[in-house]
Structures are given as structure tokens and as C-alpha cells.
Amino acid sequence: MISINDLSVEFSSVPLFDHINFVVNPKDKIALVGKNGAGKTTMLRIFAGLQQPTSGSVNVPKDLTIGYLPQQMQLDDTRTVKEEVALAFHHVNSEKERLTKLTDELAQREDYESKEYHDLIEKVSNLTERISILEKENPEAEIEKTLLGLGFKREDFNRMTSEFSGGWRMRIELAKILLKNPDVLLLDEPTNHLDIESIQWLESFLKNRANMVVLVSHDRAFMDNVTQRTVEIVKGKIYDYKVNYSNFVNLRKERIEQQTRAYQNQQKLIQDTEDFIERFRYKATKAVQVQSRIKQLSKIERIEIDEEDNTAIKLKFPPAPRSGDFPLIIEDVTKAYGNHIVFSDANLTLRRGEKVAFVGRNGEGKSTLIKCINSEVPFAGNLKIGHNVKIGYFAQNQAQLLDGNITVFDTIDHVAVGDIRTKIKDILGAFHFGGESSDKKVKVLSGGEKTRLAMIKLLLEPVNFLILDEPTNHLDIRTKDVLKQAIKEFSGTVIVVSHDREFLDGLVDKVYEFRDGKVREHLGGIYDFLHSRQIESLSSLEEKNAPTVERTISKEVPKDQDNVKTERKKTYAEQREWEKAKKKALKKVEETEAAVSRLEEEIKEIENSIASGDSSNEILELHASKTKELENAMSYWELAMQDAEHYS
């Protein structure tokens, strides 16, 4: 249990938290919410012991282990992915050292009846049990399951960490933290660089295996699926709700309505009191009553409404000039880097006004196809942009492309033309860059502020084809909702690359999935697609990600029978490879099953001996050793079953 007692935090005499109190209990899974700058990350850092409050205290039990995933981290680039993640198991030795110290302390004490002695016994017992569990785990198998769940491929395990982008490096750090199995997980925007499938794996892990979780996220669906308690930070105060995020939104609305009514009633009381004082201030017969009302007025504790911002971003894309009926036609497009084929024979046709999503694991080619559409990279095949199509492109790194050395106002002033230049301040104000904020240098803006600024640039030129690559990264939930509504009202054509299910829900009516080098079309919304794929856990994900033997249907009639024979030979060769891999996987299952059965028989014989009275140290140690071997064998059998299920 972690308790926050009368905690206050100030930055340059500006209060961030004002005498707050709350408790994190075992099994709690908490979402910290609030507008950008409310103090969510600061609270996580205080929990992690990386930042001290201005006053008050944070009580964390000494034996409580904490895993903290910040938004930015540093990795040592001298190890492979597997070697770096294996560091998670080095804590077993430190736990053993701690157990030795506690055992020595226990041996030296003689206050057998005291509370402190019994507390020490309990600590030794709990730590012994923890070490026993850790030693029974099969590190090799656990590392594999965790890395596969977070989207890595087996061929990635022996690559150096320096070869990976920031998003993948964050996954490496997340894998280390999850494998340490700490008592408390502190996660700051863990889904920012995960694809939909990895987010769902992480959801399953946190729901089924994590103990205490405190997380900050702008992914509504993720919070709903993981947390059952929501702590809102507003103007230095907190409001604690024992519900998930969606239910919190409704309860918060009720709270604001109650505060508004109370505020209005109080304002009426204050006005009536002030009117009375003003009317009878100079009447001697009313002097006592006037003084009484003045004292009454001074004692009133003014009610504040916790609506942190009553202004609303009104985001509306300019009217889209009419394009041709088919803004984009892609036929048999293939993209490869050397011998690595990103995707092959991609085919898709977009009608005017369609809104579609590109989804799939990171690295499967979503952003690459967008670069092909924008003529940023060469490709093979036919790609046609329709008549009168004007593309507005928001890249993943759009916010990073801004000039950090100029102001917010100048950023927009440099791209604005015509009458729009007279409305720059109004536009900036609508995006929360009003007043002095417009004079800030871009380099001091937060990630969400930079994303909003980049979005403003996109709004300045009328387009009829929007291509948005991860537009919601770093945006808070409220701003994402506004952006989603603006896209829904946009009359042009839209491609959205996103891993945010809540954002895509109700926005797109077609999904293109990038998987195993292919681009597949799925009619319907994002949850229709997820239901069809039945992605609910790592095991089902691995099943559905199995390579499939697909018959290629040629659009043209073969010119001669040789072409048909060649096609048949190719399909037959693929089938042979499939059968060979299936046979190998099934053999591995048989071998691991045999190992499990053998160890179960050996353990049964040992237990019979113990039951017969043989309780020597040797046979007890043998029983413990064989039990550990069985745990490892079961893990290998589980991995073998997952591989075999690919071919079922």
C-alpha cells in the first residue's frame, strides 16, 4: 500500500498539488487523468521516488518493488535485445542478498514475543516465497513470450538495441519492467508507440498478471480495459472515482453540474448580501444587521467550478474542392528495400469521400505505402492519383519538423496567405495558443502542443484528400475527440494510420490490414475488423498471424498452358514448405509432451518415497529440482503448442 499524506508541490511558487491525500491499495489499477500540465507525470515521479514534494509525505513500504516506465528513457547500446531484456532477472540475486541480511538479523534477535520480531518473520517468509517463484520461472521462455507479445520477431532477439527506433526501444524497456514483476507498475503513456495488437497483449498482461498499476494514458479504450479506478487531477486537487474512465466521464459531468448549481446559488446569496449591505450601509437602525452581513460575507468559502477550461477548440477543415470519383487507385504495388520485401502486390481503390484506416504491426509497411502515395520513395507497380486531388499530409514526425527557434505565431505567419493572415490570432486562440502563448518559442512546447501547432498548418490550405499518420500521438482525450469530429465532418477522402481504437471507432468504414507482406481489405469499422481477427490475447494473435497459403488469382487470362503449370508448381512448392514446417512443429510438441510426462512420473515416484517416510535432505532437494525442471518443461511445451497452432 502507498499513501499520499497532505502532499503539496510547487514550481516557482506556483502550486501544482495543494495538500492532497489518497491511498493506492493492493490490486488497484488506477488511471491518472487531467489536462496537459496538471501534474500526472510529476505524480508518477513522486511515486517512483525520483522527485520530492514541497511538503507532505509519501509512505512506501520498504520491501515494495516499483517498476517505472517514463515517456523517455536511455538504453545501453552495447547489448542485443535479448541480452538487454535478460537484465530483468538480475534482481533475483539482490533479493537473495536481502533475504540473507534479514535472516541474519532474525538469528540475532531474542525478542520473540514482540511485534517487530513477528513482522520480521513475515518479511522473511514473503521474500522466501517470492524468490522461490522467481527461481521456478524459465527466464528463456518468459523473455520469448514477452518480446513476442510486444511485437518483436524471433529474428529481432539477437539484433543490437542501437538498431531500433525510439518506439521499439521503449518496448525493450517495457519488457524488462514487466519481467521483473514488480509490486507496483508506474506507466507513463505506455501505448504511444505500440500497435493495436501489442496494446491488446499489454492489456491482457496488466489485467491478468500485474498487481498494482498506476498509469497515465490518452487511450480511452486502453484505460477502460485495464483500470477500475480513476484519479483526476484538477487545479491542484484530486477527485477519486472507483470506476473506469468512461464511467468517470459521466460522474465527472454530474459533479460539474452540481458544482455549477451550488456556485450559482452562492453567487445569488453573495449578490443579495452585498445589495443589503449597500442599501442599509448608512442607516443607523440597520448598523448591527449590516455588520453581521459583512462578517457573514467574509466567512463564505467561495465555490469554484472545476471545469479546467470552458473554451472549446472548434476545429473545422476548410471546404474541400471536388476531386474525381476515384482519388486513389493502387494496382499491384510492391515495395522492397534490397532483399527485404515490405509488401507486395498491394491493390486498393478509394472512392471520393471514403474514410479508411491503415492498421497492422509496426514495420509492416503502413507509413511506407503512404510515402509511396506522396512520391517520397520509389516502388514497383501502378499508383494513380485522381483528377483534381489535393493532398494534405500529416506525417508521424510532423511535430518534430517544426522550426524550434521561431515563435508559435511566426510558424503560422510564415505559411498563411491572403485574408487568413488577419485571423492568425483567432485561429491560435481556438487551439489554446491565445495571449502570451503565441509568443512562445516552438522548442519549449510540449509534444501535444507541437502536434496541435502542426495540425493548424495543415488547416491553412484547402485539400480534398487527408492522409494522417498517427495524428493522435501526444494529444489529450479532449483534443482527440475534437479532431475526430472534424474528420467525420470533412467532405473529402481520408486515410488514417492509427493504433487508437476509440479514435477509429465510428470514424472509418473500411480497414486495410498490413500483415505478412500483404495488404488486405476488411469492410466495416475497426471493431468489426478486430472481431473478425479475434485478437483477444497473445495466443490468438499468434494463431491469426500464421502464414497462410493463398491461391493467387490472376487478373489476366494466361497466354498459354506453361503459365498455368508454373503457377501450379509454385503453389505445390509452397504447400510442401507448409507441410514441412507443420511436421516440425508437431514433432516439437510431441518431444515437449514426452519430457513433461517423464518428469511427472519421476516426481510421482519421489513423492511416493516421501510418503513412505523418506524425508532426507537429498530426496527433498531432488523433489525441488525436478519440480523446477517440470516448470521449465511446461513453458517449452506452451511455446511449442503456440507454434503448432499456427498450422491447425
List keywords for this structure.
648 residues, alpha/beta, six-stranded mixed beta sheet, 20 helices, 18 strands
List the helices and strands and how they pair.
Blueprint: E1 2-11, E2 14-24, E3 29-33, H1 40-47, E4 55-59, E5 66-69, H2 81-86, H3 91-108, H4 115-136, H5 139-149, H6 166-180, E6 184-188, H7 196-208, E7 212-216, H8 220-226, E8 229-234, E9 237-241, H9 245-280, H10 287-299, E10 328-337, E11 340-350, E12 355-360, H11 366-373, E13 380-385, E14 391-394, H12 408-413, H13 424-430, H14 447-459, E15 465-469, H15 477-489, E16 493-497, H16 501-504, E17 510-515, E18 518-523, H17 526-533, H18 538-544, H19 561-611, H20 617-645
Parallel strand pairs: 3-7, 3-8, 5-6, 6-7, 12-16, 12-17, 14-15, 15-16
Antiparallel strand pairs: 1-2, 1-4, 8-9, 10-11, 10-13, 17-18
Gyration radius, in Å: 31 Å
Q: Order of strands across the widest beta sheet?
A: 5-6-7-3-8-9
Largest sheet: 6 strands, mixed
Number of E-type strands: 18
Count the DSSP helices.
20
Overall mean pLDDT stands at: 81
Instruction: Indicate the proportion of strand residues.
Output: 15-25%
Class inferred from helices and paired strands: alpha/beta
Poorly predicted ranges (pLDDT <50, ≥5 residues)?
535-571
**How far from one another are the termini?**
46 Å
